[in-house]
Design brief:
Length: 749
């Protein structure tokens, strides 16, 4: 039985449904699949989120578009709508704030530009609120300006803040990169805390009619931040689901962890499934993942056939265990993706599946879908075939282990085995062949014009709940090997389903806007003092040529970052628009169904195409609601990325709080109107030097030349400059680090 909390989360994931009016509450029941015993909980959830949306009788027609569309009134969330009428069209989106504190609304339609909001036109909206904005003006190519007309949904419901009593009254202060809120606090019975203590709080009342908002304190967390409090701070403020509802946990607990097979016809079957499986347990499949990975959803095997290879990519058959429309499936769709943090993960599926029967652990039978692809010299793939299958992985290998084996020339003891016994002579020969095949595929990818940027990610080591180091992640040949095989499998599935005219979700990465490309090329040209790549006409080739020109030089990181920011965000959708970054006309996500719901959707479509009669329903749903499903899952992916980035920023600040006063060498990584950012390359930490702390001169910012210039001594601080800085402050609440400039260093010889 799903409770009110479940249905509130269900509704919040469907803002487009809340915007549309229904003829009666029964329409909601049919759309949401509400069972008879759940109606009271659903109706309470709907009323809590959308008081005007629950009517037993047919509702009045909404006012016509135009001046009366949003009248001046209190919204369902307490904040007043704008009293001004008229103006331009209405756009809906999320209110966000830039580093400099400027409000922006990011429209829900990705093709719409961001809307700037003056500080006096927020109408009581907070950061992360979903709002309706009326566009006021747009001059020439300038970004549009607007004003908040109505708050559609509050973005902050719970948060981690600091207890701040004033006299007999209690307050709690919430600060992050976008917010700084001070709310009067309601204390639970027997609550004991000291000023400055970290507390978990929930919003009990939003500002309304001139009255201020209030918060209810849930529990004290301690004096100082740890990785646990950072996790709570981000997941609560972003409303990320962590624990699984009882119905979902119950379904997961009933899933058998054993895989019992029976011989039927020319293959094997598990249980009463209708589609026979190909028995591939004799093939030497292995998994290659990170050291701390716990869910293994892909295994690979390569067989040499003369001067060519046959690649097998086996992916966990999650669709066999997660039935369409079940509680497990509904929860997985709501989450959309797993979310990964330095010391933990919020899984899309409960551990009984993600770390249990779906995980391709060595030495046990596992149900899979296998893509079989011949590879000719030069990385030319042959016609693929697809099988519902069963495998038994031979070994769980890590990227480090495979890298060490290949870096040593693929040799261990004289018999070719590794000392720990995991890399047997057979697996060792296969790994060497895999490196050869991956090299072919990588060269072919480069030749077709795919982008290749070098932007290492931060790796944060955590000991006893505290970050103890931040280092650049290393990228080995073993990473590239798996990446190439997964790309090939994803492409093969996309091409196969497209030829059959099946409805499924593409992974879409559209070509960037022309003005974005021109802006990037202009900035890169100024930095590299080049007019541009010669003889390159198509956009992808030109962009990659710029990246190659910068490679190995002082501006490499800056140019690669600017290039990345000029690109569109990848998304999911049922339309064929290609993948610009990979230079592919057809692409999908198929290889990670344990952690990505779009992959699970594609699995169901592929199984239906292979003759699985139990997988026909997803095709109808995708045909009816493909754009809505793609939009929801793209939004969940972006939210997960935001959460991961927010925890990483706070963890870096927490680590740097122990380095205050120390001096480091770094590189100027970006410039803004209030100062410039310096990256410590060995630690992957960015900090800001505010212009107000530069006391040796009066500095002026030149955005065209991308530099700060002293007006009297003419000292210049530009992108890519090497500097020595001292750690001035580390603000863990906001995930920010401030530096003081000690000196500008001479260029390296």
């Amino acid at each position: 039985m799903r409770d009110q909390e479940y249905w509130e989360r269900w509704l919040r994931q469907r803002p487009e449904a809340l915007r549309e009016r229904r003829g009666s509450v029964k329409d909601w029941y049919r759309e949401a699949g509400v069972e008879k015993g759940e109606r009271r909980a659903f109706k309470a959830a709907l009323k809590a989120l959308n008081p005007d949306g629950v009517k037993g009788k047919r509702e009045r027609k909404p006012p016509r578009r135009g001046k009366g569309r949003f009248a001046a009134q209190e919204t369902p969330y307490g904040a007043p709508a704008s009293a001004r009428g008229g103006g331009g069209r209405i756009v809906e989106g999320r209110l966000r704030f830039t580093r400099e504190g400027r409000p922006l609304v990011i429209p829900e339609n990705p093709e719409e530009p961001a809307v700037r909001i003056p500080g006096n036109a927020l109408s009581g909206a907070w950061p992360k609120d979903r709002v309706a904005v009326r566009i006021d003006r747009r001059r020439g190519g300038a970004p549009p300006y607007g004003r908040v007309e109505r708050i559609l949904e509050r973005g902050i419901r719970a948060f981690v803040g600091r207890y701040a009593p004033v006299g007999a009254r209690s307050f709690v202060r919430f600060r992050d990169r976008e917010s700084d809120l001070l709310l009067e606090a309601e204390l639970p019975d027997r609550f004991v805390a000291e000023p400055g203590d970290l507390v978990l709080a929930e919003i009990s009342k939003y500002p309304s009619g001139g009255s201020e908002g209030r918060a209810r304190l849930v529990r004290r967390l301690g004096k100082s931040h740890t990785m646990e409090t950072l996790f709570l701070a981000v997941t609560s403020s972003l409303d990320l689901p962590v624990a699984f509802p009882e119905t979902v946990a119950g379904e997961a607990a009933r899933v058998s962890q054993a895989v019992h097979l029976s011989v039927r016809g020319g293959g094997v079957c598990h249980g009463d499934e209708t589609l026979q499986r190909v028995d591939q347990r004799e093939l030497p499949f292995v998994t290659i993942d990170g050291e701390n990975a716990r869910d293994f959803d892909d295994a690979v095997c390569l067989v040499r056939e003369g001067d060519r290879f046959r690649l097998y990519v086996a992916i966990a058959d999650v669709a066999h265990y997660v039935e369409q429309g079940s509680a497990l499936d509904r929860e997985a769709y709501l989450r959309g993706t797993s979310v990964y943090f330095p010391d933990r993960c919020i899984p899309m599926l409960p551990p009984e599946l993600s770390e249990g029967v779906c995980s391709l652990k060595p030495g046990v039978n596992r149900l899979t879908l296998t893509v079989e692809i011949p590879i000719r010299p030069g990385g030319i793939p042959g016609a693929p075939s697809f099988h519902s299958s069963v495998i038994r992985s031979r070994a769980r290998l890590t990227y480090d282990e495979v890298h060490s084996f290949l870096a040593a020339g693929g040799s261990g003891r004289e018999d070719g085995a590794q000392a720990d016994g995991k890399i047997t002579p057979e697996i060792g020969r296969m790994l060497r062949d895999m490196a050869t095949a991956a090299g072919w595929l990588s060269l072919a990818r480069t030749e077709r014009g795919a982008l290749d940027l070098d932007l290492p990610e931060a790796e944060i080591a955590v000991v006893d709940g505290m970050p103890v180091s931040v280092t650049p992640s290393e990228r080995f040949e073993s990473h590239r090997l798996i990446e190439e095989f997964m790309l090939l499998a994803n492409t093969a599935v996309a091409e196969y389903l497209s030829r059959r005219n099946e409805a499924f979700l593409f992974r879409i990465h559209e070509e960037p806007a022309r003005e974005k490309i021109e802006e990037f090329e202009s900035a890169a040209g100024r930095l590299l003092r080049r007019s541009g790549p010669v003889g390159r006409r198509d956009t992808a080739s030109r962009l990659q040529a710029w990246a190659d020109l910068a490679r190995g030089g002082k501006y490499e990181r800056a140019v690669h970052r600017m290039l990345l920011r000029s690109l569109m965000l990848a998304r999911y959708g049922p339309e064929t628009k290609g993948h610009f970054g990979l230079a592919l006309s057809l692409y999908t996500h198929f290889t990670s169904p344990i952690r990505r719901y779009p992959d699970l959707v594609v699995h169901r479509v592929l199984k239906a195409a292979l003759g699985d009669r139990g997988s026909a329903d997803p095709l109808r749903i995708l045909q009816e609601k493909g754009p809505e499903i793609g939009s929801h899952l793209s939004g969940r992916e972006r939210l997960a990325m935001e959460a991961e980035r927010a925890v990483e920023q706070r963890a870096k600040a927490l680590f740097m709080s122990g380095q205050v006063g120390r001096t480091f060498e770094g590189t100027v990584s970006s410039l803004v109107s209030s100062g410039f950012f310096v990256e410590l390359p060995d630690w992957m930490v960015d900090g800001m030097v505010h212009v107000s702390t530069l006391r040796d001169d009066e500095y002026r910012f030149s955005p065209d030349r991308m530099e700060w210039v002293g007006q009297y001594r003419k000292r210049r601080i530009a992108l890519g400059d090497r500097v020595r800085v001292r750690v001035r402050r580390a603000d863990t609440d906001r995930g920010e680090v401030d530096f003081l400039l000690v000196e500008k260093l001479p260029e390296s010889p």
